[in-house]
Design a protein that fits this description.
Order of helices and strands: HHHHHHHHEEHEEHEEHEEEEEEEEEEEEE
Structural class: alpha+beta
Strand order of the largest sheet: 2-1-10-5-6
Shape: globular
Helix content: 25-40%
Largest sheet: 5 strands, mixed
Radius of gyration: 29 Å
Distance between the termini: 90 Å
Length: 509
């Protein structure tokens, strides 16, 4: 009769890697499920958030421009694949430890490995991704972080031990070997299905920015909330419970205080019609929307706190870890709001619920969402995107777009065609829009529709009759309320927003 040691066979590197990767896959499924039910950001999201600002800015912008809303999910997927690879390598290490220390039991080796990985997670990984020592600044605290990482790594270790145990077989029993291989493949398929299902279930909450280069069709004067553009640094945006939310105003103020959402809504409020535009909006892009907003003037909150005279900036902190700033001079303007409603309803989580900042004349990156803390500081604070090279002032550039006819469309020669679009320059307003049918060699003035609001985009229309069949290049330019015409110089969105005339090619037949 063979001994226990004789019943074991040496595991090949391929088998050991497969077992380790399968155990890591089970751990990822567990983390996705936790994310879905508790809202705690997964380690994959944390690492992706840490890695993104470390990428070369040109590479980051190229990825966003090329992949659009898929860039963040693909980055997280790549990190997940890396976790599987690391899990596989740890499987190989475990197999070698079993062979090197045959006197040690499998559970002993797994427990030792768990302790090492747990220490790395708590002491190295969490501080690396900005969660402080032992995750104390992460919201879930030391105990929560310990339970989170301890349970996930325990699941990995348990699955690893089970898979290696199932893989233990008599040396010459090939039928059992085939059975265990098939069982392993089945487990892998089930786990993979679980990951895919979990991923797509979670994708319902993933912020997928639509970066279509050209948007066609004149939009509604006020954008329906469901169609309002979304941009976020997060893979999954936070869903902050209104019941536990507080806005805190601290720093260089004489009377720091905090407000609940109910207390904020009881303050005198104003309704404000305002257009928001993303600094990443390309020429002719669709990252621009207009809505009715309601909120409290930030100035009223600052006067209640009694901001001290040496304050330079307000540092804005948000529930997703995002930070930014605006100058105190800007903050005291009467149209800067802490908003809690959009289009007559409470903000949805995608747009910053329970409350966000609205700051006219600067791009959306500084209109901070999921706002939780306003700190008066004596220096110019550089926020999340500014640290990556984007403009700190983020002043809106005068822009104009052709929304009709659509790029590449065919129109009838000798027949009237409506040319229409929008223009925007913040509170500077739009004084004049001109359009061209010959690529900008000659210009004609368009008809401006009535102004929607002092902080809103403006629509324009014209009628054009193509004189003969052929290809035409339509172009547009706007002049703001100060009399300054937008520049023809083409610049990318990085670092201060795109500039240049929008052109659309059409064919008359």
């Amino acid at each position: 009769m063979s001994t226990r040691a004789e019943d074991r066979t040496a595991f090949t590197g391929r088998e050991s890697f497969a077992y380790g990767a399968a155990a890591a896959l089970a751990m990822l499924v567990y983390l996705f499920v936790l994310r879905a039910h508790t809202g705690i950001p997964s380690s994959v999201e944390l690492f992706a958030g840490w890695l993104s600002p470390k990428l070369p800015l040109r590479l980051f912008e190229a990825g966003i421009s090329t992949l659009g809303g898929l860039a963040k999910p693909l980055l997280s997927l790549g990190i997940s694949l890396a976790v599987l690879v690391v899990g596989g390598l740890l499987g190989i290490a475990y197999a070698r430890a079993r062979a090197r220390y045959p006197a040690r039991s499998g559970p002993e080796l797994l427990a030792a490995g768990w302790a090492v990985l747990f220490a790395v997670a708590m002491v190295v990984f969490l501080p690396l991704v900005g969660r402080g020592p032992f995750g104390a600044s992460s919201g879930e605290g030391v105990v929560g972080s310990a339970l989170y990482y301890g349970s996930a790594l325990a699941l990995y270790a348990a699955c690893l031990g089970i898979l290696f145990g199932l893989g233990t077989r008599p040396r010459y029993d090939t039928s059992r070997r085939r059975l265990m291989r098939n069982a392993l493949y089945g487990i892998g398929m089930l786990l993979g299905l679980g990951v895919v299902t979990s991923f797509f279930n979670r994708s319902l909450g993933v912020t997928l920015t639509d970066l279509r280069k050209n948007a066609s069709g004149l939009p509604p004067r006020f954008t329906p909330t469901r169609d309002f553009y979304e941009v976020s640094k997060n893979l999954v945006d936070p869903k902050v419970k209104a019941s536990g939310w507080r806005l805190t105003i601290v720093g260089m103020v004489d009377h720091p205080f905090s407000l609940t959402l109910d207390e904020l809504r009881r303050m005198p409020s104003v309704r404000q019609d305002q257009t928001l535009e993303c600094i990443s909006n390309p020429i002719g892009g669709n990252l621009i929307s207009n809505a009715h907003w309601r909120g409290v003037r930030l100035r009223d909150l600052l006067e209640r706190a009694r901001v001290q005279k040496d304050v330079v900036d307000l540092k804005l902190s948000c529930a997703d870890g995002y930070t930014d700033s605006i100058p105190i001079r800007k903050a005291m303007e009467p149209d800067v709001l802490v908003a809690y409603e959009i289009n007559g309803e409470l903000l949805p989580y995608q747009h910053g619920a329970p409350a966000r900042l609205l700051v006219p004349n600067i791009y959306g990156m500084k209109n901070a969402k999921w706002l939780t803390r306003i700190e008066a500081v004596p220096t110019d604070y550089v926020g999340y995107w500014e640290q990556q090279g984007w403009s700190d002032t983020a002043r809106i550039q005068t822009m104009s777009e052709i929304r009709s006819p659509a790029p590449g469309s065919t129109v009838g020669a000798g027949r009237p065609v409506e040319v229409a679009g929008l223009a925007f320059a913040g509170s500077r307003g739009i004084r004049k829009v001109e359009w061209s049918a010959d690529g900008g060699r000659t210009w004609r003035e368009a008809e401006l529709e009535p102004q929607i609001g002092e902080l809103c985009w403006r629509f324009w229309r014209a009628t054009w009759t193509p004189p003969r069949p052929g290809s035409y290049t339509l172009a547009v330019r706007a002049t703001d309320g100060t009399g300054r015409t937008q520049t023809s110089a083409v610049t990318p969105t990085l670092p201060s927003g795109a500039t240049g005339y929008h052109e659309v090619g059409v064919t008359a037949s």
